[in-house]
UniProtKB/TrEMBL annotation:
Keywords linked to the UniProt accession: 2Fe-2S, 3Fe-4S, 4Fe-4S, Iron, Iron-sulfur, Metal-binding, Oxidoreductase, Tricarboxylic acid cycle
GO-annotated biological processes: respiratory electron transport chain; tricarboxylic acid cycle
EC number(s) reported in the record: 1.3.5.1
Protein name: succinate dehydrogenase
Gene3D superfamilies the UniProt entry points to: 3.10.20.30, Alpha-helical ferredoxin
Assembly mode: Part of an enzyme complex containing three subunits: a flavoprotein (frdA), an iron-sulfur protein (frdB), and diheme cytochrome b (frdC).
Domain 4Fe-4S ferredoxin-type: 144-172
Family: Belongs to the succinate dehydrogenase/fumarate reductase iron-sulfur protein family.
Provenance organism: Candidatus Chryseopegocella kryptomonas
Top enzyme category: oxidoreductase
UniProt cofactor(s): [2Fe-2S] cluster; [4Fe-4S] cluster; [3Fe-4S] cluster
A GO molecular-function descriptor: 4 iron, 4 sulfur cluster binding
Length: 241
């Protein structure tokens, strides 16, 4: 089938402003978006720039806005976007843009500096204060289940860049950082619960979430991020009782 990819282009070193460029390609419904981007870069326009690494939905490198929704380019087939007929020429283009709300380095590559700064702010690592045991720090199956879903986050930033609260407040920690805070606050082995709760108990922390659910819709791992944030709010309220 013939499909047109309409791709956001911007090189801050040479372009005065962003623009969109169309590429008509022959593709199969089972091709992934990232496969077509590779074809365009390798065969049509080598100046096209985008991130990708593992190509299997694990590393989170190729988060993009595809037809208006944040997705992983390696996890979306053209047929998932409604392009299913091998013998058809589609007039409606597939629009590929960078994740919104982030500075653009070039084309589809965005600057994650602020994202990582907020991620680091919640101390995303195990903190213990008691002497280590002779072997590992054990958890019950129930303890593991409590943090299992939050542990699936691949830090692609699809959730954070889909959040209206993030768009309107540059200081908001964002869904990804708060989810990581949950992952360690509810880890039975961790001993810095109050320390992390203090970090997120601010107007720019957990209380900035207004349960809009955009993060849940955008998450490629289908994590119920809003629920996890609600549990953080509940734990903060219980701490004050």
């Amino acid at each position: 089938m013939k499909v047109t990819f309409r791709i956001f282009r911007f090189n801050p070193e040479t372009d005065e402003k962003p623009y969109y460029k169309d590429y008509e390609v022959n593709a199969d419904p089972k091709d992934r978006v990232v496969d077509v981007l590779h074809y365009i870069k390798n065969e049509i326009d080598g100046t096209l720039t985008f991130r990708r690494s593992c190509l299997h939905g694990i590393c989170g490198s190729d988060g993009m806005r595809i037809n208006g929704k944040n997705m992983l380019a390696c996890s979306i087939l053209l047929q998932d976007l409604g392009y299913t007929d091998r013998d058809k020429t589609y007039k409606k283009p597939i629009v590929v843009e960078p994740l919104p709300g982030m500075p653009i380095i070039k084309d589809l590559v965005t600057d994650f500096t602020d994202f990582w700064k907020k991620y680091e702010a919640v101390k995303p690592y195990l903190i213990t204060k008691t002497p280590p045991p002779e072997r590992e720090r054990l958890q019950s199956p129930e303890d593991v289940e409590l943090i299992m879903e939050a542990s699936k986050c691949i830090l692609c930033a699809c959730c954070t860049t889909s959040c209206p609260s993030t768009w309107s407040n540059d200081n908001y920690l964002g869904p990804a950082a708060l989810l990581k805070a949950y992952r360690f606050i509810f880890d039975s082995r961790d001993e810095a619960t109050d320390e992390r709760l203090d970090i997120i108990d601010t107007p720019d922390g957990v209380w900035r979430c207004h349960t809009i659910f955009h993060c849940v819709q955008a998450c490629p791992k289908e994590i119920n991020i809003t629920w996890h944030i609600s549990q953080l709010k509940k734990k903060l309220v219980e701490r004050e009782i």
